[in-house]
Structure formats: structure tokens, C-alpha cells
């Protein structure tokens, strides 16, 4: 199932630039084929398109679409972070494929069932985002009116809210993390199937005990391999998620600023507010799945402690003690926050929301400061964006296009 669904996410990552077009899946593994002229041509075309659109929006359009400039910086930052750690992601993907091959060794003794989210669910998720993206663009086209033939309207698609790279980073993270979590669940299930109730008989090990020792060692080695894959994901996607969370938080602060300063103009326009819950939902989804994976990784500790090892053979006792030590060794290397430092990912959202709330309360309680900062900011923003010579209704009509 992982290999069947993998192509969908590899292609999505290639479109936005998280993975090089030269990376292809052949013989069941992902590798970079630099000799493929066609793949190299697609990579150059994508780079050329993104560079041309970036140049056009920065030097020709100016600040007419101010959030597009922010999204451009975000895109290229995430792009560079993804390319730097691309080799780690390739090792991670190939590691899962090879892990599945080793896991099915247990089919000779127990039925192996690795659950995963269906391809249909992921296809529906991609289709839903595409429909939502098209709806947002149609809404902006209707706001622009006579400017529908402006090339800038089309060139900003790649850097306009809803941001494509945000969605791809979010859904690929959920896909890879969920596959890791389900494999930890399967190892936990296999451990519970082992018959530890056997009593050692005098005269040496029985054939059943030898099989148990072999299976315990196999599960221990597979758990160590999964823990290493979790570390590889932290190295490969950690920098990408660091940039993703940083810019999502900054985007939320910018939106809060615009909603506060121009709230009089947004009385009847609720469209920009829909991106608030979207940002929160995306971040919470990654936080929840990450916490679930780490919880499933640690769950086997409780199973190890439930086994009475006093009547077991020395070899089984040694394997269980080695297993406990192995888990404690891998504990500092598990996926934490962004792959750079140990920080509980669940702390991110409360801190971000607290800063946003403090900013909003500060602005509400200081609505008329001594130097009238609000009017000064509005005046400067109107000068840069061209609102200064426009009327109230024109501001109300076009404000959504500036803050998306």
C-alpha cells in the first residue's frame, strides 16, 4: 500500500519543488536518475517558471499583492531547506520500503497486517484542496473586475492563498508520519502475540523457546530500525517543518494586523477569515499525528514491563533487557518539534496563539495611542499599495486581495 500511494505524494512534491524531478521509483526503490534527459528537462522547466514568476511579482507588480511577496520568501526558504535535506528523505522512503520487506518475515509464524490510510482518502484530500483553490481564484477574479486580463492575476497563482506549498508540506508530513505510526502499531501487536507463558524445561531450550527468542530479537531489531527511520524523517523533514511553522505563525500575525487595522472595511467581507481556521487545522493535524507516532513508539515499553521474566530462559531475559536499553538509547533521537532541538511540538500552538491574543488585546486597549500609530500605519500602507487615491468602496473591494 505504501508503494502504491507513494507516487501520488512524490509527484506532488516534485510539482512544488520539494523533491527533484530526477528522483524516480524503479525496482521498488527511490533513487536519483541524473541520466534521464526528460526528468532533467522537467526540473529545469519548473525552476524557470518559478523564477520568472518570482521576478515578475517582485519587480513588475510591486506591493499590489503584498502577501504574495511574503509567500515568495516562504516558498524559496522551504525549497532550499527541502533540497538541502533531500538525501535524508530518500533514505527515509527507501527505509520504509525495505522495512516492509523484513516485516513480512513474520508471515511464517503470525499474520502481518500493516494498516494504512487508503489511497482514496488521499485522492479526496487532493481533490478537495484543488476545488477550494479554484474557488478562491474565481472569487479573486470577480473582485478584480476589469483587471481580469492582467497577467499578474495569473502569475500570482503559485504564491497566492491558499498556498500550494503549505498544503503539500502538510499532507506529505501526515502521510509519512501516519505510515510510521501504523508500523509501530503492528510491531506492538506482534509483540502481544508472542506466547511468553511457556515454562523453561530442564535439559536445554525447546524448539518453541528458540522460535520465541528469534522472534523477540527480530521485533527488537525492527523497532530499532523504525526508530532510526523516525530520526531520518526528523533530519529530512525537520528543517522543512521548521520553516513551515515559522512562516505560518508569521502569516497569522500579519493577518491579525490587517484584520485589526482594517476591521472597518471588513464588516461584510468574511472571506479572508477562513484562512485562520485553515492554518490552525493544518498545524494541529501535524502536532496530533506526531504525538500519536511517539506514543505508539513508547507503548511497547508497557508491554515489556508486563512480562514476567523470572520463569523465562536466560536468552529471552537478555533480549528483553537489551530491548529496554535500546528504547532508552533511541529516546533522545526521536522526532521532536522541528528536528533541530528538543521541544515538544504541542507547546507550539499555545505559544503562538498566546502571542496573537496579546497583540490583539494590546491593539484593542490602545486604539488611540498618543502618536496615532494606527493612522500612520494606514497612511503608509495606502501609499505603498496605491490605496491613497482610492475611495472607501474601492478599498473595501480590494482589501481581500491584499491580505490573502
Overall shape:
elongated
SS summary, helix count? 13
Q: Helices and strands: which structural class?
A: mainly alpha
- Give the % helix: over 70%
The helix/strand series, from N terminus to C terminus, equals HEEHHHHHHHHHHHH
Strand order of the largest sheet: 1-2
Radius of gyration: 26 Å
Mean pLDDT: 74
Q: Biggest sheet: strands, sense, closure?
A: 2 strands, antiparallel
Q: Are there runs of 5+ residues with pLDDT below 50, and where?
A: 198-203, 337-345, 367-374, 387-403
The separation of the N and C termini measures: 37 Å
Strand % is: under 5%
Give me the count of strands: 2
Tell me the count of domains.
1
Describe what you observe in this structure.
The chain has one domain. It is 71% helix and 2% strand. The chain contains 13 helices and two strands. It has a two-stranded antiparallel ribbon. The C terminus is likely disordered. This is Gustatory receptor. It is a multi-pass membrane protein. Keywords: Cell membrane, Membrane, Receptor, Transducer, Transmembrane, Transmembrane helix.
Which terms would index this structure?
2% strand; 7TM_chemorcpt; cell membrane; 404 residues; membrane; mainly alpha; 2 strands; transmembrane
Amino acid at each position: 500500500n505504501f508503494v502504491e500511494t507513494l507516487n501520488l505524494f512524490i509527484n506532488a512534491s516534485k510539482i512544488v519543488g520539494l523533491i527533484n524531478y530526477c528522483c524516480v521509483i524503479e525496482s521498488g526503490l527511490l533513487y536519483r536518475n541524473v541520466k534521464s534527459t526528460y526528468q532533467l528537462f522537467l526540473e529545469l522547466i519548473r525552476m524557470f517558471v518559478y523564477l520568472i514568476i518570482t521576478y515578475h511579482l517582485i519587480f513588475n507588480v510591486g506591493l499590489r499583492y503584498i502577501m504574495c511577496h511574503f509567500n515568495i520568501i516562504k516558498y524559496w526558504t522551504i525549497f532550499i531547506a527541502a533540497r538541502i535535506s533531500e538525501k535524508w528523505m530518500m533514505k527515509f522512503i527507501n527505509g520504509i520500503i525495505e522495512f516492509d520487506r523484513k516485516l513480512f518475515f513474520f508471515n511464517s509464524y503470525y499474520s502481518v497486517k500493516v494498516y494504512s490510510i487508503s489511497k482514496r482518502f488521499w485522492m479526496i484530500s487532493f481533490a478537495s484542496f484543488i476545488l477550494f483553490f479554484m474557488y478562491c481564484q474565481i472569487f479573486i477574479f470577480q473582485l478584480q473586475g476589469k483587471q481580469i486580463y492582467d497577467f499578474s492575476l495569473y502569475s500570482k497563482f503559485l504564491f497566492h492563498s491558499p498556498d500550494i506549498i503549505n498544503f503539500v508540506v502538510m499532507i506529505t508530513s501526515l502521510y509519512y508520519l501516519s505510515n510510521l505510526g501504523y508500523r509501530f502499531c503492528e510491531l506492538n501487536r506482534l509483540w502481544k502475540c508472542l506466547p511468553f507463558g511457556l515454562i523453561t524445561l530442564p535439559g536445554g531450550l525447546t524448539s518453541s523457546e528458540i522460535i520465541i527468542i528469534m522472534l523477540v530479537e527480530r521485533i527488537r531489531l525492527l523497532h530499532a530500525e523504525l526508530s532510526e527511520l523516525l530520526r531520518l524523517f526528523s533530519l529530512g523533514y525537520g528543517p522543512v517543518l521548521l520553516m513551515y511553522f515559522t512562516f505560518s505563525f508569521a502569516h497569522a500575525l500579519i493577518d491579525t494586523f490587517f484584520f485589526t487595522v482594517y476591521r472597518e472595511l471588513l464588516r461584510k467581507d468574511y472571506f479572508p477569515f477562513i484562512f485562520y481556521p485553515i492554518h490552525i487545522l493544518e498545524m494541529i493535524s501535524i502536532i496530533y499525528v506526531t504525538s500519536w507516532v511517539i506514543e505508539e513508539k513508547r507503548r511497547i515499553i508497557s508491554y515489556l514491563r508486563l512480562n514476567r521474566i523470572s520463569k523465562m530462559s536466560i536468552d529471552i531475559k537478555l533480549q528483553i533487557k537489551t530491548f529496554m536499553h535500546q528504547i532508552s538509547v533511541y529516546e533522545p533521537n526521536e522526532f521532536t518539534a522541528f528536528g533541530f532541538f528538543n521541544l515538544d511540538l504541542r507547546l507550539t500552538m499555545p505559544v503562538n496563539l498566546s502571542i496573537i491574543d496579546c497583540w490583539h488585546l494590546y491593539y484593542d486597549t490602545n486604539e488611540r495611542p498618543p502618536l496615532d500609530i494606527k493612522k500612520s500605519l494606514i497612511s503608509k500602507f495606502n501609499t505603498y499599495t496605491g490605496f491613497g487615491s482610492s475611495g472607501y468602496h474601492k478599498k473595501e473591494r480590494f482589501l481581500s486581495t491584499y491580505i490573502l
